[in-house]
């Protein structure tokens, strides 16, 4: 057994799998807690299709092109991260609107969302979250495996172990959420998603900065470097990087985008939700 290759694959699988597992667990818990269990199959359909497509892409890449070379790897990663950030942002505000009805007409609000394609939208979100992580994982693993094909099996086994751990984390979040107050659950998981989306946004921008697509100037300089204190390459730093987009040496533009997104979206998300004003009684109702 090549412990180094196994560990490398495990960290890649865990890093990429936790994010997708978290989002899928939130979606499933939402559907179950609101009595829309029939939508669970759609979410699993989106998740399964994304997983299968990621596997197919990984096999094709391993047997044909291998790892993408610069700048195509950065372009691919940057685009997928920006798209994923947009989709996650849409989801958390959609859930925020639904959570506003928890104490009153939640069931009616969910029915309206489902009637207008809400659960299919959640299925699409699950597909997007998993396909982004799955294809990125395929690319990372193919890059590692093609550098030394003799260790490819151990890299794959390590990645599978990491993905299983990520699934266990997602399941734990799902099971725990069923014992929580629904409004609090939506609020706190929404905040968690905001931090995830901020990390996706800043990482996506960084990919374009890295290849010089956004020019050169003070905005592309390194804002600070604390790699000696807490590196984002391994250990706690790598875990924080996967969850909240932590970087020990961010460029100025990525850091500014990260902070701006967090401040703006948190303020919008945490502001009080306007409840609809009940209609005024009609003249007929008044006479009765």
Number of domains: 1
Distance N to C terminus: 83 Å
Q: Give the integer mean of the pLDDT values.
A: 75
Helix content: over 70%
Spell out the helices and strands N to C.
HHHHHHHHHH
| Global Rg | 21 Å
Largest sheet: none
Notes on the structure:
The protein is an all-alpha fold and 288 residues long. It has one domain (3-273). It is globular. The model is unreliable at 102-107 (pLDDT under 50). It has helices at residues 3-33, 40-63, 72-99, 106-115, 118-147, 152-177, 182-210, 235-244, 252-270, 283-287.
Give keywords.
single chain; about 290 residues; mainly alpha
Give a quick precis of the structure.
This protein is mostly helical and 288 residues long.
């Amino acid at each position: 057994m090549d412990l180094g290759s196994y560990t490398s694959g495990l960290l890649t699988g865990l890093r990429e799998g936790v994010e997708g597992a978290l989002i899928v667990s939130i979606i499933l818990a939402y559907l179950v807690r609101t009595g829309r269990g029939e939508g669970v199959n759609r979410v699993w359909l989106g998740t399964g299709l994304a997983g299968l497509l990621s596997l197919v892409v990984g096999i094709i890449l391993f047997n044909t092109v291998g790892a993408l070379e610069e700048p195509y790897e950065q372009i691919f990663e940057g685009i997928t991260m920006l798209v994923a950030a947009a989709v996650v942002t849409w989801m958390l505000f959609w859930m925020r609107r639904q959570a506003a009805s928890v104490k009153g007409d939640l069931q009616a609000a969910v029915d309206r969302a489902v009637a207008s394609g809400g659960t299919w939208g959640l299925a699409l979100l699950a597909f997007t979250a998993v396909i982004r992580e799955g294809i990125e994982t395929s690319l990372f693993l193919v890059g590692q495996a093609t550098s030394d094909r003799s260790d490819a099996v151990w890299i794959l086994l390590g990645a599978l172990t990491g993905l299983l751990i990520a699934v266990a984390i997602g399941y734990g979040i799902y099971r725990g959420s069923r014992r929580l107050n629904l409004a609090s659950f939506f609020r706190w998981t929404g905040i968690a998603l905001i931090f995830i989306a901020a990390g996706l946004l800043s990482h996506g921008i960084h990919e374009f900065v890295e290849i010089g697509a956004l020019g050169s100037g003070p905005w592309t300089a390194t804002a600070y470097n604390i790699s000696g204190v807490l590196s984002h390459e391994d250990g706690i730093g790598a875990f924080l990087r996967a969850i909240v987009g932590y970087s020990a040496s961010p460029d100025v533009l990525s850091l500014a985008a990260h902070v701006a997104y967090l401040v703006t979206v948190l303020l919008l998300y945490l502001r009080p939700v306007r409840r609809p004003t009940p209609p005024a009684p009609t003249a007929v109702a008044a006479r009765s």
